[in-house]
């Protein structure tokens, strides 16, 4: 340890892109910030060391430290950490440096960056210390309001409203099963069709054509419809690790043409039971049954301890004896190395109900963030406390707490009405570390520290988390109820904390009511204004509509008048063109016709006596008096000339040498 400390860079040395190897949490002979030795020795930075590159040196020292810790674990109970110091100027200007605690793979990596650094630069430094490629990094724990900005590589971290100390969670997308699916590819794969080829042992192969939006649970349900295999009896081989029932085909990362192997666990159990009835060796049957259980509960990454967590296997399927076999007691409620909080929550609730039976409190199933949204991130009137139940299978208080206190009707009703109850099992260290990281990212580092400091002999415990303005508008732990408590005291603590929390919310409720009243008045004013505006607009529209109708009517009348005038003019021109030439005054066989108009004026023209009556009518029409509107009356004998045969000559009608006729409107 002394030798390593002498060659490791110190915080007081001018560093540039220097990676500190993991160091134990206990005091170190060379403390950070310590002065250089009296001989003026300065530990060289990695770029000054001969031989391997910086990254190789980092790996070498990290490996050396890891081996040392393995050999000296009883002397140094440490938690491995790694930190990185990027900006030389940060040594003298701490207010421009931001610290990031990266939780990954049960290890805390500390990274220091200048506030002007970008998300891409942060991810590259994360790659330097974790070897997780940038394309596979998914970082959780950003402020909700800036989560979208944090996904953009060019965003500067100073624009994300971060504190000087920040807790983040790193997820390796490969380990979560999304081998071939980058986040920006998932939307493109959602609308594609997947050809799922399923080898159903030992019955043959069948194919399903499904959309990329289909979830794994829907695939299993479709198999149930096709082959009548209940979902709980389906054993699948071929899904990428990290997938759960809510994962879509697009998110799972499988190819568009993918093959799975399917087995029916009920058939296997039935075959074992038939072998027992046929008199097989009991030891062989026992081994077969054990193998059957192994198929249900163990996969390539599971440990034998997870045997206890076998679910969805009906004891009614076993007919070895007249009574169901005795199942081993599950000390844990969540399998080891669970990497998905939603899956872990679902398994917790299912195993809790199976182990402790009814009645049981109503646990929330889903992620911790969803539980926080349901409990704390609502209007003050609807807000509840989040009760986080921390379970531990090795605690001597577990059975008493769960079988007696958590089954009391008063406790169940109080938790249902006043709280959102979220449960987690901390029996395995892997699940405990994951949940502590979630508490840091979702609530606060104080909440994580509080949960970490609860001793085993105080578990199970209930952490009560709330949000109010008096708490700085952040979620904080209000109270912790340990498992070594009686029923009356537990109920009293729950009620007292609820009463205190509701009292804190009164100011916020009153402010919300005042805001709602102002909004109501404003809404009513806006509604009245809108109604008045609509009425004015309706009047204006009616007025405009009436004016438009009048204009259209005028246009129609003018159009009809123009058409009528054109028709009259056409008739007049035809009549004018058909008139014979007017004879001279000295010519023989002529007659003079005078036409008295309705106004009293006269029209006068000479005609040959051989001209017919139609020529006279054309003359009248040519002067604008259409025969369809006027009639031509002779003076003696009085007769309507427009009503007789127009082909008769004027001589036949005795209108020579002169005649006066009268125009009358019809």
TrEMBL record:
SUPFAM superfamilies: Thioredoxin-like, Ubiquitin-like
Biological processes annotated in GO: ERAD pathway
Boundaries of every UBX domain copy: 586-663
Compositionally biased tracts (Basic and acidic residues): 552-563
Region (Disordered): 1-58, 544-563
SMART domains: UAS, UBX
Highest taxon above the source species: Eukaryota
One MF annotation (Gene Ontology) recorded for this entry: ubiquitin binding
GO CC terms of this entry: endoplasmic reticulum; nucleus
One of the Pfam families matching this protein, by short name: UBX
Gene3D superfamilies according to UniProt: Glutaredoxin, Phosphatidylinositol 3-kinase Catalytic Subunit, Chain A, domain 1
Protein name stated in the entry: Blast:FAS-associated factor 1
Originating species: Drosophila guanche
